[in-house]
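Step 1: inspect the first sequence and its tokens.
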Amino acid sequence: MEDIYDKPLHILKKVFGFNEFREGQEEVVKNILSKRDSIAIMPTGAGKSICYQVPALVFEGITIVISPLISLMKDQVAALNEAGVHAAYINSSLTPRQISLALQYASQGKYKIMYVAPERLETEEFIEFASNVDIKMVTVDEAHCISQWGQDFRPSYLKIVQFIEGLPKRPIISAFTATATHEVIEDISCILKLDNPFKLISGYDRSNLYYEVRCPKNKDEEIVNYVKEHRTQCGIIYCCTRKSVDELQELLEAKGFPTAKYHAGMSDSERNDNQEDFIYDRKPVIVATNAFGMGIDKSNVRYVIHYNMPKSMEEYYQEAGRAGRDGEAAECILFYAAKDVRINQFLIEKSHENDELTYSQREVIMQRDDERLKAMTYYCFTKDCLREYILGYFGEYGQACCDNCINCQTEFDEQDVTDICKDIIGCINESGQRFGINVIAATLMGRKLAKLSANNMVNNSYYGKWSSKKEAYLKHIFNKLVIDDYLSLTNDKYSIVKLNNKAKSIISGDIKVIMKLAKRTEEYSGAEERRGLRKSEVLTSKGLELFEDLRNLRTIKAKEEAVPPYIIFTDKTLIDMCIKLPYNKTEMLMVNGVGDHKYEKYGQLFIDAIYRFTGGEKQKFYYEGADENSKLGSQKGNDKIFRPRKKGEFYLTDYIKKGIKPLGKVTISQFVDHLNGLRDETTMKRIAGSHLTAILKEEGFVIDEFNKLIGRSTLTVTQEGEKLGISTEKRISQKGNEYSVLIYDNNAQTYLLSLIEERWN
């Protein structure tokens, strides 16, 4: 194989089986090959490992990959060996004899890539080895761990700098991570002393992932139902405590679902056995704390559920990102409950008790952790696009509507809830700020509870004032008031709700509280039936049969080879086989993910299986419009293979143009609803009113102006906008409160259509 180590594209195809680099990969590879230090921020599943593995195979000498994760090392080395590349790892899972042999073989030139835990860098044996071999590149994986401002700071990572400085010759340094703010990126570059590094931020968007937040009354019941609906799919369920992991895993097992578990309270052997049960598909579901998952390269995880809200967006993005690593569609669902905030506040405080930091350093980090928790909590309550929220957190901005999260698939109305907020604040104040949200909500609803009678809450002047509202609706408003700093919750075991100074502005009438609620019903709590992803089949029924045959064959070979099934071929590769039906070596090497070495090991075996199934006929086992780039998904209640058809951007088709009619005076929402109702929703994304409003702002027809009366900015029409046909109209809410909306006449609508024609067609 030595002759292929000439050009990166040759290596990419012959070793890894890919015809071209993914977005961002080629730029990083070229810069590393030009011997330039590099730092790359790439989302999970974007192919970070390719960025350093390809150059490592081009270079003479050894590449050292530093990783904190035993599981990642094992996965990466197994995958490289399956691809015909000799690699090794050194960590605490090996015996001293095994470590010595690995270093001996590496010294003899048998390994091009060696994975090492940071703790091993300061051992005498490894330092001696490193001083006597040609280390061409040092790659730092999970590089955010080196920064104190990162979400997972590890002091052992600071040893990397000392190790590099002790080498006879400075190697090329490359650093990779999936999650880092701009501040953390600069910190990584500074601490590692990168020399004029090439920096790539390929983007945080994982378009194949569907995001949803739920607030169920019974989390356990919803989890059981979800796992039942996705019985044969692999999934990870994260819990924030060991107790929750144990209880949920026992519940799922009792319901008949093979389920593994993983947390720090288990022995090393128990954790290893459970992790392997999951990786080898013996148990398709694993319930775990966040101690599990970093570096797990399992490609066919179709869902990640968070039983509790994580402590930060960085943590959530990384954990949710373990779904759909193969680029196929997957679901990321977060179950939120109010107590999640208190649990995380406790975990943050506990995590810093034994930090080797000064008091001032610990205070700064604690403050940052609190800010991260607040941003995470906002995510759980925003009614705007969830994907846009995640991207915005990391300093990246996309479209206002992704059409692949629960909020973009739900229609909302804005409601003035100022009157309810006044009564919530009044009830809290009258009761002496002595109770939690549950008691205040029950009082407002006028519930007949012994606890309310015992605490004289039945005589509270607000008792029963909102008996027409459901508890979930009132709590939704409570949560908004907490997030917006009108109320706060104590950190006690039984959290008490307190009034903040800002609450006075609601009582005085200086502020109006506007909240977005789902159109279906204002009491929508998220527990009702949800609109799922619109999916269309790719494989026909015969194609699905072939896929199952190939998957069973893969399982058999995986057991024989003692490797995880996805190491042999991913689901994506098997689906591509079902579409292309290869009958010879040339055709099999055209399948995505089949390289020379894998063909030699498995190619003929799978060709024979395809031939037996088809009788050698070139048949069509997929539907029109399905191709290699479409996304794999799942239909609830059905274990077939699906992919959502990729939707194009909105544009004015002839059919839409014919259906457009003058609407008279309407809001921007009513205008775009009219247009969206004319489109083919299976092939075209929605157009959002916010897109048009942004353009109108650019062109000076409307502006944002601060309104002192309500304490926030509102959209206001300019003189130019008035000439165009935009006007302001006063309206009265159901509660008698006055508010303003912008109205667009037929002339303004004609202009909006010209904007769409110009910018979207």
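Step 2: inspect the second sequence and its tokens, then contrast the two.
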Amino acid sequence: MGKQYLMAVDAGTGSVRAVLFDTDGNQIGCVQKEWEHKEDPRFPGSMDFDWVNGWALACECIRGVLAETSAAPEDIAAVSTTCMREGIVLYDKEGQEIWACANVDARSTDEVGKLIRMNPALEKEIYLQSGETYALGALPRLLWVKDKMPEIYEKIGAVGMFNDWLIKKLTGRLAVEPSNGSTTGLFDLKSRKWDKTIAERCGLRGDIFPDVIECGEVIAPVSAQGAAQTGLKEGTPVVVGGGDCQLGTIGVGATRPDQAVVFGGSFWQYEFNTASGQTDPECRVRVNCQAVPGVWQYEALAFKPGLVMRWYRDAFCQPEKEAAAAQGTDPYDLMNREAAKIPAGSYGMMCTFSDVMNFISWKHASPTFTNFELDPVKFNRYTFYRAILENTAYLVKGHMELVREATGNMPEEIIFAGGASKSPLWAQILADVIGMPVRVPQVKEATALGAAILAGCGVGIYPDIETGAARCVRWDQVFTPNMENHKVYKSLYPVWRRIYDAQLQLVNEGVTKPMWIAPGL
């Protein structure tokens, strides 16, 4: 037997990939195939998942990474899976797929409205037990199937998630795990199991829930059919993985309670590990099971910070784009260099884009810049750009305070990962606003690495998840807060909250349009 490898198969929103790691967490190879989810023209906002083509692409990725790395199938010590959360797959009683939708499917607005009208207090009751509101969970989608496709609904034998679907295709066995299963809104958080009474209270069947197996456990070996389709060796252990965010936190070293990660990309997520499955009495923040048994995770989401940056770059920074193309560099680097010269607080100017999460009434204000003067030296495009960076750091501070109110706990530092962490200016502003160190890992595929760590734990390569993460995760740099800047931001943060509240009130009165609003609101 040669060197041992661990494989992660990741079904993301826009692509599927197979990633191979050695047992020290070094990425050996990655093959990725893009996929797209088609809208059913009859149902606006729908996003159907094509499981036939999806599995064919997953098999291509697995075969491709074995070929690319020349890794022998017998050297794969274990495989695990991860995926976009909230995407669901329905199976008939024979275990065949009969319906599936991707995570950003938005066809069930009517069903959210129906649930709210049926019992206005029910959403809060379900949240306090499950950590989920109707905004992201499976409940409205299952009701949609019941209402709009009764012939499919009658045939349902089981409901599962995409990472479980990958395991079923590899092994023939279906079971759901707590980290992604809990995002359905149909789990009891504390027991980390399905609660069929939640489904029944919403008018859904309670007999469609498969077994639950904990993250990091071997579920089954690769079957003969799975081996023939993927090129893996029959009998290779398959280990239960988890949802992308939970495995992403493991892949950047946050495995213990009271550790926290900010993932900065198109969306920004604050993930805080906790030893309790207790929810927020005011229903403002999401709570999921972490992919570490006995750990849960508070999750505060902000929609669109990365997309706001892209909009600003493309709308106002043509000179930087042209200069960057000529120099072979990134326009953000040029923008950051100039924005770093603007003092902390952007001369008192603020903007409202993404906001602190309020899960039970989730919306963002209309985009606004305010409190600037007609002085082109101080208030130029770099000041406006810096204000966007500061807006995002303020909302992270808001998320940290929100979670502290619910749990009584704060982290001692923040791990900062995702595309935004490549910006040293953004990382420094984040450290200055929150007043604590910001640690940036060296990582390309945090989610896949988290899956590989679970795979290694399942077969005993690592004694536990924490040890596996400590062995595999490496660090790039640590940003320590400038306490003078922190003082400035500490005084400006409550002002930003008041400005944001006023802008949100205009949305609530119908005067302005929200930048983003949850379905059914």
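Step 3: confirm your contrast with the notes below.
The CA atoms of residues 404 and 410 lie 6 Å apart. The chain has two domains: 5-252+443-476, 302-441+482-517.
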